[in-house]
Specification:
- The protein has a single domain (2-201), classed as Rossmann fold.
- It contains 5 helices and 9 strands.
- The chain has 207 residues and is α/β, with parallel strands linked by helices.
- The longest helix has 19 residues, at 25-43.
- The structure holds guanosine-5'-monophosphate (5GP).
- Residues 58, 111-120, 164-166, 170-171 line the site of guanosine-5'-monophosphate.
């Protein structure tokens, strides 16, 4: 996935590669700029600025770059949801709700990753009940092959295979969100055993 001019992260000699650079910052910036252009075009004649809703916390870096890539005024707001599985059913609930009233407004859900689609399906239903003028979704990453529930996603940064990723807002146990590039973790069990495993590669100390 990394561009051909980007070097994969090297590891200590003798260690197998458990992770690698997946999408570098230049490629991220380029895609986010393009999506910012799409949203600008869509909403430039709208009666009111669109409200971009970032889902905490994974999409915060994406939101910050995306909203600045738009050439029109836009409002931002945040939601947090929690999901847990019980008896093979996944329950999703809102743990932080919007400050805006979205009635009659153009709304854009900003997601980091759409995976099974369960979270987005729940969010869309919840937001549609509030009768926005329009509702669209932009996701940086789409793991479309893993979808369980079909759900519309109007703007997609990258369609990616079934790999676990960290960086550019996305975490493992709360870590690695502030890495500017996106990394794929091939050996998740190894990272679970050693959650600090990626720190030396992602945050090499200043000599
Ligand atoms: P869904 O309900 O679509 O299965 O869940 C999507 C959410 O799962 C994303 O918003 C994200 O929080 C989390 N997620 C899915 N895949 C990954 C991944 O590869 N890395 C990280 N850090 N989170 C992921």
């Amino acid at each position: 996935m990394a561009g051909k001019d980007e070097q994969p992260v090297t590891e200590a000699a003798g260690e197998s590669r458990a992770y690698e650079l997946f999408i570098g910052r230049e490629a991220l910036v380029e895609r986010v700029q393009a999506i910012g252009g799409e949203l600008t075009e869509r909403f430039k004649d709208a009666p009111e600025p669109p409200i971009l809703i970032a889902i905490l916390k994974g999409s915060t870096m994406f939101l910050a770059d995306l909203v600045r890539a738009m050439k029109i005024d836009a409002a931002i707001d945040f939601m947090a949801i929690s999901s847990y599985s019980s008896n093979e059913a996944t329950q999703v609930r809102i743990v932080k709700d919007l400050e805006h009233d979205i009635l009659g407004r153009d709304v854009v859900i900003v997601e980091d990753i759409v995976d099974t689609g369960l979270t987005l399906t729940y969010l869309r239903r919840s937001l549609m009940e509030r009768e926005p003028r329009s509702l669209r979704t932009v996701t940086l990453l789409d793991k479309s092959a893993r979808r369980i529930v079909p759900v519309p996603v109007e703007h997609i940064g990258f369609d990616i295979p079934d790999v676990f990723v960290v960086g550019y807002g996305m975490d493992f146990q709360g870590r690695y969100r502030n890495a500017p590039d996106l990394y794929s973790v091939k050996d998740l069990a190894r990272l679970a055993n050693d959650p600090l495993m990626l720190v030396p590669a992602l945050f090499p100390s200043v000599p």
